[in-house]
TrEMBL record:
One of its GO terms (cellular component) is plasma membrane. It is found in: Cell membrane. InterPro entries: LeuE-type (IPR001123). It comes from Halomonas icarae. It is a multi-pass membrane protein. PANTHER family: AMINO ACID EFFLUX PERMEASE RHTB FAMILY, ARGININE EXPORTER PROTEIN ARGO. One of its GO terms (molecular function) is amino acid transmembrane transporter activity. Keywords: Cell membrane, Membrane, Signal, Transmembrane, Transmembrane helix. The chain crosses the membrane at residues 41-66, 116-137, 143-163, 183-204. This is LysE family transporter. The keyword Transmembrane applies.
Amino acid sequence: MPFSLWLSLAAVCAMGAMSPGPSLAMVLRHTLGGGRAPGVVAGLSHALGVGFYALLTVWGLGALIVRQPMLFQIIGWGGAAYLAWLGIRALRAGRHGPLEAGVVATTRRQAARDGVLVALGNPKLILFFIALLSQFISPGMSLMAQGVIVFTAMLIDGGWYVLVALGLSHSRVLPWLQRHAHWINRATGVMLLALAARVVAGALPG
């Protein structure tokens, strides 16, 4: 995978992880309720769920591009439309996202369980990966390149939530996130729309 293409993948994965939502609220809740360790565990276990979905998506799209290239192209166009829709929704989001994280007592085991369940229990996540990863898979892509895609999504997701958990130890990250949630949403929206536009431009005849 060219480095420039990988940068696009990493940037979109980062914006997806940073966007305020139930996953972020879950990590915040466990960090505030149990301290640094449960927050880190919640973030890492969430990344495992994300990696599982990314792996299933890459394998499925890799097989599809060999057997049904026309269907894969249709999925790619549909994915671009879905990414554009997500981008518009993010741009229209208000200042307040689902960042209310009530302080409740928690343990590392509960954090690990919730991290995986929140990731695997989010049906929109698999749709996001189908839309996103279809833009980065090409005919004849090696297993190593597919692995790079999966580990990029997983490491960026886990890395972001671990940073959030570590930062909350100083009690400054949550207020910052709540204060800047609308800017995070706007940046996410711009990135998603840019990716959708790149897909459409690449598919047009030169």
